[in-house]
Structure formats: structure tokens, C-alpha cells
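Hey there, shall we discuss this one?
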Amino acid sequence: TSMVYAFGLFLLLLMSYKMGKAEKLREPETV
């Protein structure tokens, strides 16, 4: 279903975002 596809895409973006932040641990920012 489209729900599963949307969830997978969101998860992929979330993982990519987390990896990006992990690489920039030298400058932490408070969200």
C-alpha cells in the first residue's frame, strides 16, 4: 500500500538526517 511506501521513505530520510547530524557532532545544536 502507499502507506508502507510513505513510511519507508520517511524512515530513509530520518536515517539520512541522523547520519548527517552524527557527522557534525563537533558542533551540537539544540533543537
